Amino acid sequence: xxxxxxLAAVFLVGLLGAGHCAGMCGGIVGALxxxxxxxxxxxxxxYSTGRIASYCLAGAIAGSVGGLGLMFSEVxxxxxVLYVLANVMLLILGLYxxxxxxxxxxxxxxGQLLWRRIQPLGRGLIxxxxxPRALAVxxxxxWIPCGLVYGVLATALLSGTVGRGALVMLAFGLGTLPNLLLxxxxxxxxxxxxxxxxxxxxxxxxxxxxxxSGLAHAFDLGEKIRTGLFCLG
Length: 233
Fold this sequence. Notes:
Blueprint: H1 3-16, H2 18-33, H3 37-69, H4 75-97, H5 103-106, H6 112-118, H7 131-141, H8 147-159, H9 162-186, H10 190-194, H11 197-216, H12 221-226
Helix pairs in contact: 1-8, 1-9, 1-11, 2-9, 3-7, 3-8, 3-9, 4-8, 4-11, 8-9
């Protein structure tokens, strides 16, 4: 997909996945919110900096793997396959956000082995009442098994480079930032709104629409790539 459209799609996945993000990071966000008023904003931002940095690292790894795939066989078929898979993943994420399919949640099982090794490292960092502790906790929590994160990582594969894979995950991470700040700092009851049926349905429909739009362009994608009119990166 055009790079700007892909970044917009994954930003929306992060932004509209508010209820899910609040559930995954709710405990840490609550602990940060319990700190004195002047420290809360700084700790929240520091925590999210560490979390998004881990997303970017994972995206860089995914982008490098996708780039290796483009080196084998003919490049065009590989690009087409990655393109289609990335948009199918948006369909799956849309259904997941709307609460209509648990398929994306199954991806979380793949990360449990890594998470069991990483999670104990965070025990000595709680309470995260200083900036270094909040940064470290965020960096660790960026690896928590999450269907949304894994779904966007599949899109990062499409980027084909380390830098662009990291940029995809940066867009996703920035999308999650307003939700966690809103939940932790401004409106404590906002998680109930984000987890409401109406919000989830609209969110899922928008993300699903990105996937449908992308797949609709797959029919003439090959010719556009050959003529240099379409850029996947």
